[in-house]
Amino acid sequence: MPSTATRLFLGFLAGFLSHLIFQGGFGSILYAAHVLPTLPWSLAPVPPLGVPRSLSLGFWAGLWGVLYAVLERRFTALHAWWSGGLIFGLALPLLAYWFVVLPLRGAGIGGGFHVAMVPIEIGFHAVFGLGTAILFRSGVALIRRRGRASPEALHG
Known about the structure:
The chain has 156 residues and is an all-alpha fold. The protein has helices spanning 4-32, 53-78, 81-104, 117-148, 151-154, and strands at 45-46, 51-52.
């Protein structure tokens, strides 16, 4: 069983990578289908530190991954691991985006809930939650497998 610190690190890594891989892949599919006007990855600097946009969003996704790591056992106990990830992505990050982030940016609640954008936003957050669950579960399984290996097997 991974320690709490390991689970939190895995959660951050899972969220960060889920943003880059799963949401980026989903966004690329939408871009290729001419649904999105730009690719999801961006190296444009974000104020105040000038960090590339994709890394900045990845950092915030990593923090959501930490929260997922804290809540993962509850989600898994109530739902299958994959549906728990979907529910997490749709419930917490999406609602925070609609009701906290967008109003803070001056876009109003849900950014006005534009009919064309709502399914895209739901898709991005569902993919994020599922990707976080997959990557977190894979990381935990890898840690457990390494912990079960004998010292002789690890040192050749």
